[in-house]
Amino acid sequence: MVRLTEQPSRYDDLEKKTVDELIRNINTENKIVALAIEKVLPEIGKLISAIERQLKNGGRMFYLGCGSGGRLAVLDVIELPNTYGIEKGIINVILAGGVQNLVFALEEKEDDEIEGWNSLQKENISPKDIVIGISASGITPFVLAALKKCRENGIPCGSIVNNPNSLISQYSDFPIEVITGPEFVTGSTRMKCGTAQKMIFDMISTTVLIRLGRVEGNRMVNARLINNKVVDRSVRMLMERNPQITDYEFAKEVIKKCGNVKKSEQYLKEQGWLSS
């Protein structure tokens, strides 16, 4: 298998370049990412539709990864309960070395062929769920071994890799191979590969949760009141969606009582302040 992610950079003598030259060239490489993703939008759509089906039928989604890709998945997933008001445990991450060790970057764990499947078993993984393996190289043992076990047990799988014709894709029902080419610093897949992974995570979580009814119009009507900024945003959202509510303090009181915009509107309808 050709590993484009390990091929030499298109640039050399980096230490001799000026700051302006370095950032201009990095930006040039970053422009490749969105175009590479555009080429695999149909595959991304198939994976998202599969996730939607599993979650609507009571299943869960698990990202499975290590290194930069695994850590980026953690960052995506931890935002979702507050942003969209979903329960924890619907969308999850199995990170090599454990999510609790996120900041320690236990890169050696990517060679562990047992931990991934063991961690999924501890979550009582079943064919109702779906697992998405993340690997820039497409051969990471931690991910590959777990996907093999998932296939043996009838658990649907997707994957996100950055090399063509990867082994991991062969054990995935919904493979995504987003080809971003050699990195600016040879082999540093936290760069374009990581950027591509983050962009795809955004697409997956945002689209799935819109499809599951967690957004109305273009607003986060189920966002939890985690700080003053979100309280103010929610109050203004409630007032904008319901122009008959003109008293900010009244709207704020209702928002704090109910917990989010969606629940506030339901409460106001029940009380006769809003028409059904």
Automatic annotation (TrEMBL):
Its EC number is 4.2.1.126. InterPro entries: Etherase_MurQ, MURQ/GCKR, SIS_dom, SIS_dom_sf. The keyword Lyase applies. Residues 51-214 form the SIS domain. GO terms for biological process: amino sugar catabolic process; peptidoglycan turnover. Pfam families: GKRP_SIS_N. The keyword Cell cycle does not apply. One of its GO terms (molecular function) is carbon-oxygen lyase activity. Keywords: Carbohydrate metabolism, Lyase. NCBIfam families: PRK05441.1 (NF003915). PANTHER family: GLUCOKINASE REGULATORY PROTEIN (PTHR10088). This is N-acetylmuramic acid 6-phosphate etherase.
